[in-house]
Write a structure and sequence with these properties.
The chain is of the alpha+beta class. It is about 15% helix and about 40% strand. A ten-stranded mixed beta barrel has the order 1-3-2-9-10-8-7-6-5-4.
């Protein structure tokens, strides 16, 4: 996996677009900022970065971290302002958010690609900050043009009791 560079992601609820993630009964459209256009304000806007991002400032204020570490909870601990972390390894993808951890297992087999994992993590961030409950999720579906990829969240563990104080809480 190449390093994920820091970038702003905007998310809209039920707006048509080339990249959408179906999550918790909602269709979230994800885009990097575009030029001025006639679109409604996004429901979420957040910074995504990889741990290899050269700017410490960008890593420090990232809301979503995409990494190669095996434990996304460690990514969250290393980036206290972060709400969602996803770790992409040779054995699959794992996500941590809101005190919960889960594996992202492709529904039709194959691998959980790094680019897809970053999109799932961004959709999860938007879903959480707009009132979604992390424990209510079981499946995420990525629609990119005519291509559909789905993952189920398995092995869900609740680590909220062990969560250190000072990190952002899920509303």
């Amino acid at each position: 996996m190449g390093g994920v560079m820091a970038g702003l992601v905007r998310v809209w609820d039920d707006l048509p677009g080339p990249v959408r993630v179906l999550i918790g009964g909602r269709a979230l459209t994800l885009r990097r900022p575009l030029g001025d256009g006639l679109v409604p304000p996004p429901c979420d806007e957040h910074l995504v970065a990889g741990p290899d991002e050269p700017s410490r400032a960008w890593r420090a204020c990232a809301d979503v971290i995409v990494g190669r570490a095996g434990d996304p909870a460690r990514l969250l601990a290393a980036h206290p302002g972060c709400l969602v972390a996803v770790a992409v390894t040779e054995t699959g993808c794992r996500v941590a958010a809101g005190g919960l951890e889960a594996r992202l297992d492709p529904v039709l087999g194959g691998e959980c690609a790094a680019g897809d994992a970053a999109l799932y993590a961004s959709a999860l961030h938007a879903w959480l900050v707009t009132g979604g409950r992390p424990g209510a999720l079981t499946r995420l579906t990525l629609v990119r043009g005519n291509t559909v990829t789905a993952v189920k969240m398995t092995g869900l563990r609740d680590r909220r009791a062990a969560r250190p104080e000072g990190r952002r809480a899920v509303p």
